[in-house]
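Before anything else, study the sequence and fold tokens given here and see whether the fold suits the sequence. Record follows:
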Amino acid sequence: RAAVAELLKGPSEESGLMTALATGVQLLSVSKSKDGSEISVDFGSKFLDADKKASPDALDVVILTLADTTGIDSVQVSVNGSADIAVSGDRSYSMPVAKPETVNPYKS
């Protein structure tokens, strides 16, 4: 929970860094499966953009952070309790997903 809270807080203005998460996103809950292999994280509606879609970059940074800080295998992301999240792009997040291999890959 602390790692996601730090993500939502975002970088300091002095750092010059930007975040993939929108301002004002609310963390509703975080829970771990009984076998410890999966974490579920639920955000408020501000996790979605004006078109009611989630940013793949925001999803990836949340998944990567949780996977790296907890050692779990997969993350289930939901918004207001629903895992049926529309995403800009072709990847599905309606089921638990493994951590991405890269975030912000180099594009030439």
In short: The helical segments are 2-9, 56-70. The longest strand covers residues 27-32.
